Amino acid sequence: MALEFTTGKKRREPIPFTLDGHDFVFNPPKLAGAVLDALDDDEGAGALLDWFAQGLDEETEKFITARLRDEQDDLDVEDLGNVIKALMEKVVGRPIKSRPGLRRPR
To answer: 56 in helix, strand or coil?
Structure first.
């Protein structure tokens, strides 16, 4: 007997979040593109940042990008990684965990 799977309903509604006192809205794009790109990318972080950017309006993306480029601003990729992880968990409805058995060898 074949295994049967049913695709779960994806979260599509906007997710409000606050970063350093500024309120933003994230419109969750589909995760598949980011995940597939991350698997093909040696660094993977670029695909996740692209996924994050797709869910933001242009003004918010420019604001966060400017902060990332500002050497005097403490906001860094690690900080955004925490935001992205929390948003991904909200989108999929469960915690995101690393599974060493599923990682590709480097």
So the answer is: coil
